[in-house]
Amino acid sequence: MKILIIRVGRVGDMLMITPAVRALIDAYPEAEFHMLTNTDGRRVFSGFSAQLTDYLLHDRKSLFALLELKKLLRQVQLTGYDSIYCFELNPSFRPFFQAAKDGGHSVDMSHPELHFSRRCLDLVQSVIGPLSHDYWLNLPVSDGARVRAEAILAEAGIDNSTFVIGLHPTYSGLKKMAWRRKMDKGRRWPTESFAALAKQFSSYAEQHGINMRIIMDLMPEEVAVGAEIVELSGGKVTMLTPPLDFQRYKATLARMNIFVTTDTGPMHIAGAVGANLVALFGGTDPNDSGAFVPGERWQIVQSVTDRISDITAQQVFESSKRFLPGQ
Description:
This protein is 39% helix and 17% strand. The protein contains 14 helices and 11 strands. The chain has a 6-stranded parallel β-sheet, sandwiched between helices. Strands 3-2-1-4-5 form a 5-stranded parallel β-sheet.
């Protein structure tokens, strides 16, 4: 049995279908799965399951995107999939799921009030019947990746006894030119606020005798923002800039006891590998784009306005206390 899954998007978009994909793999343990996606999707799902064996790549930003899509449609038709699950909202993918032997299945777009992950799970459930248990964001972390992460942390003086708090101060739109950064007010928490929060965590650790480290694991283009936080915090934050390695990055997030972030891809990654989340939201809705994880594993800090800068460091610290030792 061959099943095709369709979803093209950034890292966060791809992670939101992991509950549904895991449910499908559990339901069809003998099936071979392929995925029509982009390079971000392949990166996210690399190592996800031995049953996921092939990727049909589509670059929606290519000048020849429509032509490439037609070629992919022909390839799908020739392969003859038994079933196709389309989690893609773009209507240009409709001909694909209709190419399946069973007519294909597409996500219900008539309930925008539901979290996207829930809508994907509802689609799977409508086909295979009631699910045996709850499914949440999920990504495997390999032993090799954990070893690489532990080595990088050890270089910074962090061992298995250290309580690790991670900060993520950027989002994907930050790389764009200033006049194109429309999401700044909803997703960019000020560096001053991150620094003030780090000082509060550090003070708490000193008062309670906790071996704590506050770190940022950043890409090269994020270093300037990270350096500002390190300086403003008086060195309370350690910035790591190891070689880019998505598998290792997952392992580093899995090691964190708390991960403080705005609404961005790393929030979903951290949720998928089991970290406790404190997630800040400005103009976005956590019921729509938040981490799809059990409620006991994440704390939402929502601005009363659409400006994330209105959230104070004190608010975030108080929200984080449920995950701190000594509470």
